[in-house]
């Protein structure tokens, strides 16, 4: 049933509707009233069409429910320092292409950049990908919060000023021309349609599962070396992944209902906060808890960080929204190298969608021509095919890593013991992770 389309007359559409409700009932979070209203709106619309066009229209979608009359959209933001060449804007391109391919709803982009480096107009080029471009409006953020130190990638790879831009995200609640919005950061990619999320009620957000629900990863997170070592260990030992991997909200993906009152509430709440080390997502998380309507957490199969893909998603699924390719987001950016992203399941996917997008949007320039050249495309293809060759994955895979890890640990233990014995101090092999 779910893959089948409900076609036919009005009677059939009713059967489909009832059937869809039966299917939807155990899901709890689906809004039955809303589905009912949607059905009636769609029904009227289709009846009208069938009379005017003299044919019986489709009543479709995977859930069996049409929601054409709903004003739903995806929303992203690309705010780059004024006067500087665009940086975050590039990440919108592959997502725009994917949304155009998979979704019934448009992408809305908030940006302060009007032209690409080659001089192409941003709004008119993105319109070819079905994107509606809107300007970024100011959001009042207290100075003490704007300039505070944050242990976050936006500050570590950018600056406190750039990190302050994240609070602009709060203005998405003001886009009241839409009934519901799905926000996505521009350092991620959709793997399949996320339209099913529009059926849910309330505010939803990604689990802040940076450590993929593992205490070992949490302990190792401040060291790149130990983070990678623990990751290799985890990938070599098959284990079941928890469904709940974090209790906090990550604002990488949000489902929200725009409302000016909610926006004003968020701003008042922000003004009342002394310090916000966790950035905009801390404001969102604590505000909705304060108003006793907490943000619900999306399943890790729907949204997750890239470092958890392939090791911490129940059933080994590829999540719908993958936020960053890995801890450093090595593969989801302009300039990502084929040889570095060969083992990433979505490296080539991001590259392909990026290059399709610039071709449709008609954006040029030396940097893009190089990144999307036929030679580059071959390189990405070649690397992937090499990895898919029989035996290759086994050869370069996890078992060998585990042996290296064990050998390394044994060697370190021996060395520590020898040094301890030589200096007369009590030795031992205390694991720091
Ligand atoms: Mn992000």
Structure keywords:
alpha/beta, 3-stranded mixed beta sheet, 2 domains, 433 residues, disordered N terminus
Following the backbone from N to C, one meets helices and strands in this order, namely HHEHEHEHHHEEEHHEHHEEEHHHHHH
Domain tally: 2
The Rg value, from CA coordinates, equals 24 Å
CATH class of the largest domain: Alpha Beta
**Total beta strands:** 10
First-residue to last-residue Cα separation: 48 Å
- Mean of all residue-level pLDDT scores: 81
Q: CATH H-level name of the largest domain... which superfamily? A: Spore Coat Polysaccharide Biosynthesis Protein SpsA, Chain A
Small molecules bound in the structure, each named once: manganese (II) ion
Which shape, going by the Cα principal axes?
Answer: globular
Which spans of ≥5 residues are poorly predicted at pLDDT below 50?
1-66, 424-433
SS class: alpha/beta
> Largest beta sheet: what is the strand line-up?
3-2-1-4-7-6-8
Describe the 3D structure.
This protein has 433 residues and is of the alpha/beta class. It has 2 domains: 1-69; 72-327, Spore Coat Polysaccharide Biosynthesis Protein SpsA, Chain A, CATH 3.90.550. Helices cover 42% and strands 10% of the residues. The chain contains 17 helices and 10 strands. The strands form 2 sheets. Strands 3-2-1-4-7-6-8 form a 7-stranded mixed β-sheet, with helices on both faces. It has a 3-stranded mixed β-sheet with strand order 5-10-9. β1, α3 and β2 form a beta-alpha-beta unit. α9 (224-236) crosses α17. The longest helix is centred in the C-terminal third of the chain and has 26 residues, at 398-423. Bound molecules: manganese (II) ion. Manganese (II) ion is lined by residues 185, 187, 252, 323. Manganese (II) ion (MN) is lined by residues 185, 187, 252, 323.
């Amino acid at each position: 049933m779910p893959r089948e389309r409900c076609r036919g007359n009005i009677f059939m559409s009713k059967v489909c509707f009832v059937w869809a409700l039966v299917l939807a009932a155990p899901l709890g979070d689906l809004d039955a009233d809303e589905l009912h209203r949607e059905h009636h709106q769609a029904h009227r619309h289709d009846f009208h069409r069938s009379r005017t066009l003299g044919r019986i229209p489709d009543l479709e979608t995977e859930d069996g429910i049409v929601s054409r009359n709903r004003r739903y959209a995806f929303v992203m933001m690309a705010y780059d320092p004024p006067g500087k060449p665009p940086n975050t804007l590039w990440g919108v391109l592959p997502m725009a292409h994917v949304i155009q391919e998979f979704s019934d709803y448009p992408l809305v982009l908030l940006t302060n950049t009007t032209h690409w480096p080659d001089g192409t107009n941003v709004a008119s080029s993105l319109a070819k990908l079905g994107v509606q471009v809107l300007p970024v409006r100011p959001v009042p953020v207290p100075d003490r919060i704007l300039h505070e130190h944050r242990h976050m990638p936006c500050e570590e790879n950018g600056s406190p000023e750039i990190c302050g831009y994240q609070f602009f995200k709060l203005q998405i609640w003001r886009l009241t021309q839409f009934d519901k919005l799905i926000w996505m950061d521009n350092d991620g990619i959709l793997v399949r349609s996320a339209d099913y999320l529009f059926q849910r009620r309330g505010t939803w957000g990604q689990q802040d599962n940076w450590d993929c629900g593992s205490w070992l990863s949490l302990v190792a997170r401040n060291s790149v070396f130990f983070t990678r070592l623990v990751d290799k260990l985890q990938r070599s030992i098959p284990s079941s992944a928890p469904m709940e991997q974090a209790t906090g909200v990550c604002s990488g993906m949000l489902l929200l209902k725009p409302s000016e009152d909610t926006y004003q509430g968020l701003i008042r709440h922000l003004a009342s906060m002394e310090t916000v080390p966790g950035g905009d997502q801390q404001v969102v998380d604590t505000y909705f808890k304060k108003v006793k309507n907490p943000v619900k957490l999306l399943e890790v199969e729907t949204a997750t960080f890239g470092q958890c893909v392939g090791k911490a998603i129940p059933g080994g699924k590829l999540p719908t929204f993958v936020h960053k390719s890995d801890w450093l987001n090595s593969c989801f950016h302009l300039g990502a190298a084929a040889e570095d992203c060969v083992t990433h399941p979505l490296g080539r996917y991001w590259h392909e969608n990026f290059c399709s997008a610039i071709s449709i949007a008609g954006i040029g320039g030396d940097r893009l021509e190089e990144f999307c050249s036929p030679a580059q495309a071959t390189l990405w293809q070649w690397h992937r095919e090499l990895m898919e060759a029989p035996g290759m994955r086994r050869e370069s895979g996890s078992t060998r890593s585990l042996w290296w890890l064990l050998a390394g640990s044994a060697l370190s233990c021996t060395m520590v013991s020898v040094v301890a014995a030589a200096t007369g101090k009590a030795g031992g092999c205390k694991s720091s992770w």
